[in-house]
Design goal:
Blueprint (H helix, E strand, L loop, with lengths): L66 H10 L6 E3 L3 E4 L18 E2 L7 E9 L8 H13 L13 H4 L10 E4 L3 E3 L10 H14 L8 E7 L8 E10 L8 E8 L23 H19 L9 E2 L6 H4 L6 E3 L2 E3 L16
Parallel strand pairs: 4-5, 4-6, 4-7, 7-9
Antiparallel strand pairs: 1-8, 2-8, 3-10, 8-9, 11-12
Helix pairs in contact: 2-5
Length: 352
């Protein structure tokens, strides 16, 4: 049974019991994968994720601060028809540091637990919320421009360097490919309280279906909201889920990330960069880009597809967690955190 150790408050991992889902074929490849619970299940219903509404959003009865809290919250909410979700990995807030150069976090190198990795990832940002003085087109354009700038590895694209190159050591011999495909806009109001993982998976499925498209199995659907919700004591998280268009069709699994509007939120801001006061575009954009890189490279190395984990260390930390708030790299003018390297056993400067 693949059970991650519980982490310090900034990052905890839930241990849950297995559940048999009658409408989904079980994915049991080895003994280590048994015992993982799907955090929601889709009842047989004609109501699809494309029609879900705010009744499914939920309101946590306590502040969500780590993965354990998020998984517990997910299990307490009604299932969304057509949607199934995996465990969620929560990125804790910045707690402060005792030195200018923080030590590597967690315990030891990353270990391969054989879940799916996304050596090739297709990025789909989803901007959820009405236009406002802060959630502007310029804010959205800066994010999509960043994704365009880091495309690499595909035919006609630049070679992968920096962060995008170092993560290939976790891809079991496959090369790195990063593509920005297209973005979605949903002008409706996002949840005012910390959302469930099923809500974010359903939002992605809804937007894909509304455009007449199908789920991309290599897709990472990153949901950027116009607000920072209540009951959220974290900066972002990533997870995975599946969508069934009808009760009889096969489930399509894909990765998601939830990134609220960080602005200058204490504990999530680029203002935590020691001695750094000049931000490319704005402090709000710089803050969200740093958190975005954390979730992107964690999703690539630990996609959680089919609720199976890939790379994490003996304390349950993923590559981004081990170097969280260690601003050792610059990508396209943005100072961002490093990513852990099993090769050098540290958080190297990955400036590119």
């Amino acid at each position: 049974m693949n059970l991650r150790p519980v982490k310090p408050p900034a990052k905890a991992v839930a241990v849950v019991l297995a559940t048999a889902l009658a409408i989904f074929a079980p994915n049991i490849a080895s003994a280590e994968d048994q015992g993982k619970e799907k955090t929601s299940q889709a009842p047989k219903s004609s109501e699809l994720a494309s029609t879900y509404d705010s009744k499914y959003w939920g309101t946590p009865n306590k502040e969500i601060a780590n993965s354990l809290d998020q998984d517990e919250y997910n299990r307490s909410q009604p299932a969304i028809p057509g949607i199934e979700t995996a465990h969620s990995e929560v990125f804790g807030i910045f707690k402060g540091r005792q030195a200018a150069s923080p030590a590597v976090q967690g315990r030891g190198d990353l270990t391969d637990h054989r879940g799916q990795v996304l050596s090739e990832v297709h990025i789909y940002p989803i901007f959820w919320g009405p236009t406002s003085a802060t959630f502007t087109q310029n804010y959205k354009d800066a994010i999509t421009s960043f994704f365009t700038s880091i495309q690499c590895g595909a035919s006609g694209a630049p070679a992968c360097i920096g962060h995008s190159d170092i993560v290939k050591q976790y891809f079991r011999g496959a090369p790195t490919v990063i593509k920005y495909n297209l973005s979605f806009n949903d002008p409706s109001n996002p949840p005012t309280s910390s959302p469930t993982s099923t809500s974010i998976v359903a939002e992605a499925a809804k937007m894909v279906k509304a455009r007449g498209l199908t789920i991309d199995p290599l897709g990472l659907y990153m949901v950027f909201t116009s607000n920072f919700p209540t009951r959220a004591n974290y900066c972002a998280w990533h997870s995975a889920g599946s969508y069934k268009a009808t009760p009889t069709t096969a489930a399509s699994w894909f990765s998601v990330a939830y990134i609220p509007y960080l602005g200058t939120m204490a504990g999530c801001s680029a203002g935590n960069i020691p001695g750094f006061t000049t931000y490319k575009t704005s402090q709000a954009v710089h803050s969200v880009i740093n958190v975005t890189t954390h979730e992107l490279y964690e999703a690539m190395t630990d996609s959680l597809i089919n609720n199976r984990s890939a790379w994490y260390d003996a304390a349950g930390y993923e590559n981004g967690d081990k170097c969280a708030w260690n601003f050792g790299s610059t990508i396209n003018g943005y100072r961002v955190q490093s990513e852990y390297s099993n090769t050098s056993h540290n958080c190297p400067d990955l400036t590119s």
